[in-house]
Structure formats: structure tokens, C-alpha cells
Specification:
The structure holds 3 protein chains of 3 kinds.
Chain A (H helix, E strand, L loop, with lengths): L5 E12 L2 E12 L3 E5 L6 H8 L7 E6 L2 E2 L5 H6 L2 E3 L12 H6 L9 H14 L15 H13 L5 E5 L7 H16 L3 E5 L3 H7 L2 E6 L2 E6 L1 H6 L1 H8 L12
Parallel strand pairs in A: 3-8, 3-9, 6-7, 7-8
Antiparallel strand pairs in A: 1-2, 1-4, 4-5, 9-10
Chain B lengths: L14 H46 L8 H16 L5 H23 L4 H21 L9 E2 L6 E2 L2 E2 L6 H25 L1 H11 L1 H6 L4 H27 L1 E2 L1 H4 L2 H14 L6 H20 L5 H15 L3 H6 L5 H14 L4
Antiparallel strand pairs in B: 1-4, 2-3
Helix pairs in contact in B: 1-5, 1-8, 1-10, 1-11, 2-3, 2-4, 2-8, 3-8, 5-6, 5-8, 6-8, 10-11
Chain C lengths: L3 H32 L6 H15 L11 H23 L6 H24 L14 E4 L3 E4 H23 L1 H11 L1 H6 L4 H26 L7 H15 L4 H21 L2 H18 L13
Antiparallel strand pairs in C: 1-2
Helix pairs in contact in C: 1-5, 1-6, 1-8, 1-9, 1-10, 2-4, 2-8, 2-9, 3-4, 3-8, 5-6, 5-8, 6-8, 9-10, 9-11
The chains are: A alpha/beta, B mainly alpha, C mainly alpha.
């Protein structure tokens, strides 16, 4: 446990798709209790990084340590049960089930009884303020409600680390606010977060530290201000063109 | 009770009395209506059970097993071979059917369940066809001659059977098996969290994995269970029908029927296969009596399938639940009309 | 001891047979690419085509060949009318669209098989042809049975016309664009509905007329469909879903395999081998032996 309070550490993590190196020797360490942001232009390897860390892709090189334990190549469900939760870019509730059933489907190793599990579902739904729709089918819910449900499901894992892929995408400002509050609240209680987000406003208010990806490499790390001043980062984002001002981290 | 239709809620009086009445009717059936209807009844019960077995993997788990009928045939041949080639009593054949089906299903599941969608459908279909062709070639299955099973003695596990070998006896065996299949489905897929996990992997496999669900394992469990159920029915059917041939009990039509029954009734629902199974079985069984042709039910069922898929994808259950109204059909028709755009 | 004369004769028969299978396989593969549905009705189109040959030939002086134009037109029209239905059940917000597509074509297959069975009974019927009889002796090679030769010529010609349309015309380009990416094609302003109908109609027409030729070569029977569905699956699985050049190779392999195993092994063994190959190839390399198929679900 020489890592001290490092909860997630990747060393030279590499993932290739044919000729394309989507993740090129990414080394990154996340401290317990922080909120880490990951930014980078489209196709810079952020989601691939998530998928490789959480076991959906087999890495072509390098290693992943979670809580001081080497977990490289573990199956996703095994990692999840160890307390590594994640969401997907495209919101994916189990459409033909109710909110409650969605939550109860989550499987853990903690030996909770049926009643305890049901109780926990109630607590989480209340915390997320969606307990009034607990018995509604997920297919009829709004996009925002589905996002909250997705977060709720992850919380059923009692995760130590949660990786969120664009939690604010396609969400109205009021709900965005609500999601941010929930993340802060959970973080105060000790949950670590790694967040991919395009919305720089969200990134600025949320992240303690920001990692910048470009062309599959981890090119910079620091707090939001530092990173936005970084020359490489500006280059990666501007890339010779001046379009897409909203994505420039200023 | 997410698996039962609200139409049941609208029954007058206490629901329990209706179930009780149904139970009594089913128990008294052979005595009330005689051996012809006992035969019809046992066939219907068997097909409902088989449709439910397909529904486990195809409906609840969403894996389109187009070779499921193979396990019905394997169960039949396992029992038949045990009785004919080795002279064992049926119980041994029954046990053998379960073991063989479970082992084979597990061995098939490991590589095959990695495929999804159409690929899984074609692979299981091809496997079932190869099993049929192999049974036509092999000697132990009787090849193209089939197997004639001994007429059973009048005892079952050493106990004298009151209506030995009669339709009545097999009616009660099928009733027991069908009820057991329903109970297992209800408990595992509707009541237990296992069922939620199965539906979760059907709706989104990656999300299910990310939530701690070992999808590979869960799929395998469902597949093996559903195959064993089919084999159990197969073994009893062989015992009942006495003569088995690969072209009958391994025919693709066995799978076809299960799929159609589950679909018409309502996929991934507890009671769907009951309605679908009854409808299709009776159509087929009675078509020669009432429609004057033993094959006329085929185009009828074909048409029924197409209409169901087009306008009522959640099946009879969906209609009973009121999920499909006139407006849905109208909307469907309108959208469909827009797709005709050749000229 | 291999008899060289027999051997070359088997090769000839196999190649000629392969020609007609390719026609079926290419259409089937294209239907998959365009509609993203595996068509369980493919073999039944062959069967119905063969029966149209058997039934209509007497009206044309007992000559099955003359039925071909009618089959082409009828099948194109029917296919173009069926396509919107398939498209409808596989799109939109319905549960299990893939299953719906499969089961729809499955229902169609049951309908077609059942109808023919009910109307004509279970017995097989001949598709007569007085033009296509006998064989052409080629010294040193063997006999080219006229029926099979014309069948193969038709197959290759039909295929060539089809390929020309697909690769050299605007309509063909539209169809290929849809097969590539339906959403993108729509954004490019392609009339999806129309070209999907044309593609499916053309596939049905080719398959139906292939059925007439197969009927003339063997015969027409209500139960023959399953075998040709199996053949079509075999070809696309071997080639990789939606990869047309692979289908041509696979079709010829199929013709040769059938021709050889029918002589040297029993008929049941042929099917056993075919099905076993389909299963194993799917497990080992779902994108086809060359790995160039579409890895769609």
C-alpha cells in the first residue's frame, strides 16, 4: 500500500484499435476523496480510458490499480462489486423495468439481506428525490430522470470511486445543478469521482484536479486555472482552427 | 405481480376463488371430458411448458434461441436410449435426460452465448439442425428408423399406477410438470432479484456488467435451466408417445412452435406462454377437425405472427393489459403507409 | 481410387450448381445489408418460385423457361410490397426490434410454406422443360447437363446485371449507401423507403427465378425451402454478413461441396457437415472466414 491515499492508478495504460492507438501509455493517479475531471477534444481517448479502466476493453499494455490492488483485465462486474462504479455516455436504464427493479438488479458482494437492500433503495431514491416515481417503468421517464436513475443504480454498489461519462450532457440547467449538488454531497461523504465533461462551466465548479487528454495521451494535469493556461492544452483544443469556442477551456 | 394481466383484476369476486376453480377444473379434466380431451389437455400443457421454457431464454433474457427444440429431442432420445438400448426403467431415462441436457447446454452455452442477436439465432439453429442430422445417421438413436420404446409397466418408481399408460396418467404428469415450470418461472423471474438481473442484461448488457452483474454467468444459468426444462418435457413425451423419430422430435417445427407461442402470448411475461401456447396448440390440433385440413393452421399461424409483430408486439398479454389500443394500431398503420414509397 | 472422369463430372456439376446458389446468396446478403434483417423466408421464395414454375408451365406449352419473366415481375412486386412491412417492424420504438424482424420473416416463411402445402399437398411436382434437356458432351471433360448449364448462365447473368446496377448506377449507389449507414444515407437525401423496396424486390425476383431453375434441375416440393434457407445462411456466414464478393466464393464452395458429398457421402451427412460448418464459423469468426463481414447484431 505504498500508494498511500491513491485510489486509482494507471501506469502506461495502452489500448489500440487496429492502427489507431486510442490510449497511449496513460499514467494517471486519482487521490481518495477528490473529484477529478477529464477533458479533451472529441476522439482524444477519454471514453476509451473509462472502458479500459473498468474492464470493458482488454488493455494492450500497462496496468490499473484500484485501492492498491492490481485489477488489470478484470471483468467489469468484478470491479463493480469491489466498489468501482461508472455510467455511460448514452444514458442506459433498463427500459422494461421499474425504477425500483432497476436498482434491485444491482449485484454486490456485501451480503446484505433482501430487506436491507430494499431499504437502501428507498434511501437512495429519497436522496436523489425520485422516490415518487419508484414504481414507474423506466421507458416512460424523461431524460433527466433517467440520468438520476443511472446515478442511483451506481450508488447501490456503495462505490468508493464513481466514474461519470458526461453527466451533464443533454440535461437542462436546473437538473444539471441538481446533479452537481448530488455529486458534491456524495463527495463530502467520501466518494471519489472521475468525471468526463465537455461543459467547461461544470468542470470549473466541479473538479479539484483536471487531466487533459489529446490524441490518446495524457498531456497535462493540474487545477482548472493551471490547465487552461497550459500551452499544449490550448494547442490541442484550438488545433489550428478557431471554431468551437465553447470547447476552449478559458 | 408484474407478470399478470390486470384483466384478472377485473374478475368479479375474490381472485383466489377463480384460481381455485381453475385448479379444480384442471384436476378434474380427464374425468369430466374423457380420454380424447385428456389427450388434448396433456398436449396443451406440454406446449405451454415448452413455450415457457423458450420464454426464459428468448423472452426474459432476450437471446433468440432458434435451436431450443433440440433439447426437447435430446430429452426424448436420452429417455428412449436408456429404455431401449439399456433396458432401464423410465426414471433412469428421465434422470439421464436432465443430466445430458444440462451438460450439453452448459458446453454449448460457453462459446455460443458470446454471440448476440441474429448470430446467436443462426448458430443455435445450425447446431440444432446438425444434432438432428446426426441423430438420423447414428445407430444409437435408431437412425432413420427411429426408436420404439417399450410400453411402460404399470408402476412408477415401484408404486402401482392407477391409470397406467393411459392418457389420464400422462395428463397428470404433464399437469405437474407444467405447474412446476410456471412456479419456477414465477419465483425466479418475477419474484427474485435474479429475474431483474436477467432482464437487465437483456435491456443493456454493458450497463448490467457495470452494475456488478456477471452477465456471462447469468446468461449461462438461464440457458441451462431453459434447456433442461425442454428436455424434461421431451423425455416424458417420448415415454408417452412410445415411438420417437429425429424427423419428429428434433424437427425445427418444435422450436418454431415454442417461439411463436411465446411471441403471440407476450415475450418475457409469466402468463404470455399460457395464452400463446393454448391458441397455437388448439389451432394446430383442431384445424383438421374444424378447418378440414391438417395444414391449414400453418398459413393461419403465419398470418397471425405477421399481424402480431406489426400491430401488437407485446402479444396477447399486451392487448389484455390494454397496452395496445385502437390508437396504437392507427398510428402503426399510418407509419406503415408512409414506408410504401416505390413509385 | 478416384475415377478422374467421375471427378471432373462432379466438379462440373458442382460449379454449375454454385452459379445459381450465388444468385440466392448475393440477394440475401444484400437484403441483410440494407434491411439489417436476416430473412428466414429466403428458402420459401425459392420454393414458391419452383411451384410457380410447376403450375404455370403447362400454360406455356409445358416450358418452365417461359415462366421466368412472370416470376421476375411478380416477385419484384411482392418483394417491394413486403419490404416496408419488414422495415416497419425493425424500426421505431418497439421492444426487441431484432427479434421482431426475425420473427416476421419467420411468420412469412410459415405462411408461404403452409399455403403451398395446403393448396398443393405434400408431394413434389416436376417443373417441365422441353428446351432444357439432355447434355452437351465436352470431350476430355465430361457432360454439361443443359438444365444446369442454362441455370448457371442465368445465375451469372442475373448476378452481373444486379452487380452492374449496384455499382454503376445512381440507384445502386443509393442502395449501397443505405447498406453502409442508413442514417447517413437519409441525411444525404436518399429516399430510403424507395431504394429499400427496390433492393428487396430485386432480391426476391432473383431468388424466385432461381427457384424456377432449381425446380427444373430437381423438382418443386413444399418442404424444399428449409434447405435453401440453410444454403443462404451458409453462404453469408462463410462470406461474412453483407460482404458480397465473399458470397460468390461461398456459393461455389457450396455447389462443389454438395456435389462431392452427395456422391461420396450420404445426403444426411451433407447437411450435417453444412450445419456444423455454419455453427463453427460463427463461433470462431463471426465476420466470416475472411473477416470482412459486418459485425452487426
Amino acid at each position: 500500500m505504498s500508494d498511500g491515499d491513491t485510489i486509482l492508478k494507471t501506469t502506461d495504460l495502452t489500448k489500440r484499435f487496429g492502427a489507431l492507438t486510442a490510449n497511449d501509455e496513460i499514467s494517471l493517479a486519482v487521490e481518495r476523496g477528490e473529484i477529478r475531471g477529464i477533458i479533451g477534444p472529441n476522439g482524444s481517448g477519454k471514453t476509451t480510458f473509462f472502458n479500459t479502466v473498468t474492464g470493458f476493453y482488454e488493455p494492450d499494455g500497462g496496468s490499473v490499480h484500484f485501492n492498491g490492488e492490481e485489477v488489470t483485465g478484470w471483468e467489469p462486474h468484478r470491479l463493480a462489486r469491489r466498489g468501482l462504479g461508472r455510467t455511460f455516455q448514452i444514458v442506459s436504464p433498463f427500459k422494461n423495468m421499474t425504477v425500483r427493479q432497476n436498482m434491485l438488479a444491482v449485484q454486490t458482494d456485501d451480503g446484505r439481506s433482501r430487506e436491507e437492500k430494499r431499504e437502501r433503495v428507498g434511501e437512495i431514491l429519497e436522496f436523489l428525490e425520485i422516490d415518487h416515481i419508484a414504481d414507474n417503468e423506466a421507458r416512460g421517464m424523461s431524460g433527466g430522470q433517467q440520468k438520476l436513475l443511472e446515478l442511483g443504480r451506481v450508488l447501490m454498489l456503495d462505490p468508493e470511486l464513481v466514474m461519470l461519462d458526461e453527466p451533464a450532457a443533454g440535461v437542462n440547467p436546473a437538473l444539471e445543478e441538481r446533479i452537481m449538488d448530488h455529486i458534491h454531497e456524495l463527495n463530502d461523504e467520501g466518494t471519489t469521482f472521475v468525471v468526463i465533461e465537455h461543459d467547461m462551466h461544470v468542470m470549473k465548479t466541479l473538479a479539484d484536479t483536471v487531466s487533459v487528454f489529446d490524441s490518446g495521451r495524457h498531456i497535462a494535469q493540474g487545477d482548472f486555472e493551471e490547465v487552461s493556461q497550459n500551452e499544449d492544452v490550448r494547442k490541442a483544443y484550438l488545433g489550428g482552427t478557431t471554431a468551437e469556442d465553447d470547447e476552449v477551456p478559458v | 405481480m408484474s407478470g399478470s394481466a390486470p384483466v384478472l383484476d377485473r374478475l368479479p369476486g375474490d381472485r383466489r376463488y377463480w384460481f381455485l376453480a381453475l385448479g379444480v377444473l384442471l384436476l378434474a379434466w380427464p374425468f369430466l371430458f374423457g380420454s380424447f380431451w385428456a389427450r388434448i389437455g396433456l398436449g396443451a400443457l406440454m406446449w405451454i411448458g415448452l413455450a415457457q421454457s423458450w420464454n426464459m431464454i428468448g423472452g426474459y433474457a432476450g437471446y433468440l434461441d432458434f435451436g431450443h427444440g433440440a433439447y426437447f429431442g435430446i430429452g426424448g432420445f436420452a429417455a428412449g436410449i436408456a429404455m431401449v438400448q439399456f433396458g432401464y426403467p423410465f426414471v433412469v431415462g428421465f434422470a439421464l435426460a436432465i443430466v445430458v441436457a444440462a451438460v450439453l447446454a452448459y458446453l454449448v452455452a460457453v462459446p455460443t452465448l458470446r454471440l448476440t442477436g441474429a448470430y446467436f439465432a443462426i448458430a443455435t439453429w445450425a447446431l440444432a439442425e446438425s444434432i438432428k442430422q446426426a441423430a438420423l445417421i447414428l445407430e444409437i438413436t435408431g437412425g432413420t428408423f427411429g426408436l420404439s420404446l417399450p410400453r411402460s409397466p404399470d408402476t412408477f418408481i415401484g408404486i402401482a399406477v392407477p391409470f397406467a399408460i393411459s392418457e389420464t396418467f400422462f395428463y397428470y404428469v404433464m399437469l405437474l410438470l407444467c405447474a412446476a415450470t410456471m412456479l419456477v418461472t414465477y419465483v425466479l423471474f418475477e419474484r427474485h432479484e435474479f429475474g431483474y438481473r436477467v432482464k437487465a442484461l437483456r435491456d443493456d448488457q454493458d450497463a448490467a456488467e457495470s452494475l456488478g452483474i456477471d452477465t456471462t454467468r447469468v446468461k449461462r444459468q438461464v440457458y441451462v435451466l431453459s434447456c433442461v426444462v425442454a428436455a424434461v418435457f421431451g423425455s416424458v413425451y417420448a415415454w408417452y408417445i412410445v415411438f420417437i423419430h429425429p424427423n419428429d422430435i428434433l424437427a425445427p417445427i418444435v422450436t418454431d412452435r415454442m417461439v411463436i407461442m411465446a411471441l403471440l402470448g407476450g415475450l418475457g411475461t409469466l402468463t404470455g406462454p399460457i395464452f400463446g401456447g393454448l391458441l397455437v396448440f388448439l389451432l394446430q390440433r383442431l384445424s383438421s377437425v374444424f378447418l378440414g385440413s391438417s395444414t391449414f393452421y400453418l398459413p393461419l399461424i403465419g398470418t397471425l405472427i405477421m399481424i402480431t409483430v406489426l400491430f401488437a408486439p407485446s402479444g396477447i398479454i399486451g392487448i389484455l393489459r390494454g397496452e395496445i389500443g385502437r390508437d396504437d394500431v392507427r398510428k402503426n398503420l399510418k407509419e406503415l403507409g408512409e414506408k410504401f414509397d416505390l413509385l | 481410387m478416384v475415377d478422374i472422369g467421375l471427378f471432373t463430372q462432379i466438379v462440373i456439376n458442382g460449379l454449375l450448381l454454385g452459379g445459381i446458389y450465388v444468385t440466392i446468396g448475393v440477394g440475401f446478403s444484400l437484403a441483410f445489408g440494407v434491411l439489417e434483417v436476416v430473412d428466414f423466408a429466403v428458402g420459401e421464395y425459392v420454393m414458391v418460385g419452383a411451384f410457380m414454375g410447376a403450375v404455370l408451365a403447362p400454360l406455356f406449352g409445358a416450358e418452365g423457361v417461359f415462366v421466368i419473366p412472370i416470376v421476375l415481375v411478380v416477385f419484384f412486386a411482392v418483394g417491394a410490397l413486403i419490404q416496408p412491412l419488414i422495415h416497419h417492424v425493425t424500426t421505431g420504438d418497439r421492444p426487441h426490434p431484432l427479434l421482431m424482424g426475425l420473427v416476421f420473416t419467420f411468420g412469412l416463411a410459415t405462411f408461404l410454406r403452409g399455403s403451398v402445402l395446403t393448396i398443393f399437398g405434400p408431394n413434389s411436382q416436376d417443373v417441365p422443360s422441353s428446351l432444357l434437356t439432355g447434355g452437351i458432351e465436352v470431350p476430355g471433360l465430361g457432360t454439361f447437363p443443359v438444365v444446369r448449364t442454362v441455370t448457371a448462365v442465368f445465375g451469372v447473368t442475373g448476378l452481373a446485371v444486379f452487380m452492374y446496377y449496384l455499382y454503376r448506377t445512381r440507384g445502386g449507389m443509393a442502395i449501397r449507401a443505405i447498406a453502409e449507414d442508413r442514417t447517413n444515407a437519409r441525411l444525404m437525401g436518399i429516399n430510403i423507403n424507395r431504394y429499400q423496396s427496390i433492393a428487396y424486390g430485386a432480391y426476391a425476383a432473383l431468388t424466385g427465378s432461381a427457384g424456377v431453375f432449381i425446380g427444373m434441375t430437381f423438382n418443386a416440393s413444399p418442404g424444399m425451402g428449409l434447405q435453401y434457407t440453410a444454403f443462404a445462411f451458409f453462404m453469408v456466414v462463410l462470406a461474412g454478413m453483407g460482404y458480397l464478393p465473399g458470397v460468390i466464393v461461398a456459393g461455389i464452395v457450396l455447389g462443389l461441396t454438395q456435389s462431392f458429398t452427395a456422391v461420396y457421402i450420404s445426403g444426411n451427412a451433407v447437411l450435417l457437415v453444412l450445419f456444423a460448418i455454419i455453427y463453427v464459423v460463427l463461433l470462431v469468426s463471426p465476420a466470416g472466414i475472411l473477416g470482412k463481414g459486418e459485425w452487426a447484431t
